[in-house]
Amino acid sequence: MRISFSAEDEAFRAEVAAWLADNLCGEFEALRFRGGPGDEHSFPEERKAWERKLAEGGWTCVGWAPEHGGRGLSISQQVIFHEEYARAGGPGRMGHIGEGLAGPTIAAFGNDEQKRRFLPGIVSGRELWCQGYSEPGAGSDLAAVKTRAVLDETSGKWRISGQKVWTSLAHESDWCFVIARTEPGSVGHQGLSFLLVPMRQAGITVRPIEQMTGTSEFNEVFFDDAETDAANILGAPGDGWKIAMALLGFERGVSTLGQQMQFHNELDEIIRIARSNGAANDPLLRQRIAQAWGGLRILRYHALRMLSGAQDGSLRREAMVYKLAWSSWHAELGKLAMDVLGPQAEILDEAPYGLNRLQAMFLFTRSDTIYGGTNEIQRNIIAERALGMPREPRPRA
Ligand SMILES: Cc1cc2nc3c(=O)[nH]c(=O)nc-3n(C[C@H](O)[C@H](O)[C@H](O)COP(=O)(O)OP(=O)(O)OC[C@H]3O[C@@H](n4cnc5c(N)ncnc54)[C@H](O)[C@@H]3O)c2cc1C
């Protein structure tokens, strides 16, 4: 794998930087470096307006194929876009679940009508999405979902009942992709379907869950006879598991580059603080800072190698290692940030939750090894799929 930037790429870099300089200012100035992990609650309305601004400039869905409304950028130009976005302090993206997960999945599995209906709303930044996978009894064991959906032939609607949990940004979303059991009596991977459900309706209640940051990025979502049109199913009834797994493959895709640039900003801030408060003279902290820097380089090359393969949602070996690697690295970075801050790390500006950016980052990194598949589950996947070890014993249904 080799990545280098041509003269054309460098011209593109200048174009991205100029657009951001011209647009991430004025009413959007306050959003710079905001809305990242632990700070997702900040400026929601302004960040939604920023999504639309990005869309007007053609800077959403930059890696999507033009036929789906994207820019069809090469991997190197996507790298450049994310680098410049992070360098300019571009805010955490409100549309990332639509752009990174729902959109690619609809493009891969949707019919023409579904693509026409849903992709433009994501590209324009006007329709936000959330992910309805986890349930109180189904997290790592996702196939245990109990949410049910029944097709009501008379009204031409799916009727959905059940509960989802940990649903990020459900309170801001217009649509949710829901894994539901559509074959009564089915168990495990069988009988599941992938439904696209409008969030703003009487049958859906969203209840925020307060996190240890004091904010509520995620929610419980209750479906009480909620409905969606019969046509809003991806694939056929029973295809839900296959599609749900492909979506998780997209989760390890190009958007990870944007995440790495944000890691870069965090590490830069830690290094700046270490220089100014004397932590850089502590021999052990210096070791850890250098190790973090080296680790981030390795993550970058690993991600580029992973992205130089097919982006079709299939789970390649590089991708199996990647979630485990970045989440463990980032969790350590959170601890390093606290140690570099020293006693100041334990002081809050205001009661109860006036966290500064690194304090919020530290607390949020506790969840990195959980969401998107826990570290234990990632190691199981490596053991079974990459190393060919026997499957771990599963409890009987
Ligand atoms: C910040 C955040 C945002 C999230 N956003 C969303 C979202 O938008 N939509 C959504 O659907 N979900 C979301 N989730 C949920 C997330 O996907 C689940 O938390 C995750 O899959 C783990 O499931 P669980 O919490 O039920 O834990 P459990 O599955 O109950 O696991 C508990 C512990 O047991 C371990 N364990 C479980 N099974 C095994 C096994 N077979 N072998 C070894 N160890 C095992 C786990 O590693 C873990 O340590 C989010 C979670 C977080 C933290």
Rounded to an integer in angstroms, the radius of gyration calculated over CA atoms is: 21 Å
Distance between the termini: 44 Å
Quaternary structure annotation: single chain
Tell me the number of strands. 8
Q: Report helical residue fraction.
A: 40-55%
Q: How many strands, which pairing sense, and closed or not: the largest β-sheet?
A: 4 strands, mixed
Mean of all residue-level pLDDT scores: 92
Kindly name the structural category. Answer: alpha+beta
Give the DSSP E fraction (strand runs of 2 or more residues).
5-15%
Q: Count helical runs.
A: 11
Unreliable segments of 5+ consecutive residues? none
SSE series: HHHHHEEEEEEEEHHHHHH
**What is the approximate shape?**
globular
| Bound ligands, named by name, code or SMILES | flavin-adenine dinucleotide
Describe the structure.
The protein has eleven helices and eight strands. With 397 residues, the chain is of the alpha+beta class. β2 and β3 (157-164) form a beta hairpin. The strands form two sheets. Strands 1-4-5-8 form a four-stranded mixed beta sheet. It has a four-stranded antiparallel beta sheet with strand order 2-3-7-6, with no helix packed on it. α7 (255-277) runs parallel beside α9 and α8 packs antiparallel against α9 (317-341). The radius of gyration is 21 Å and the shape is globular. The termini are far apart. The longest helix has 25 residues, at 283-307. Bound molecules: flavin-adenine dinucleotide (FAD). Flavin-adenine dinucleotide binds next to β1 and α11.
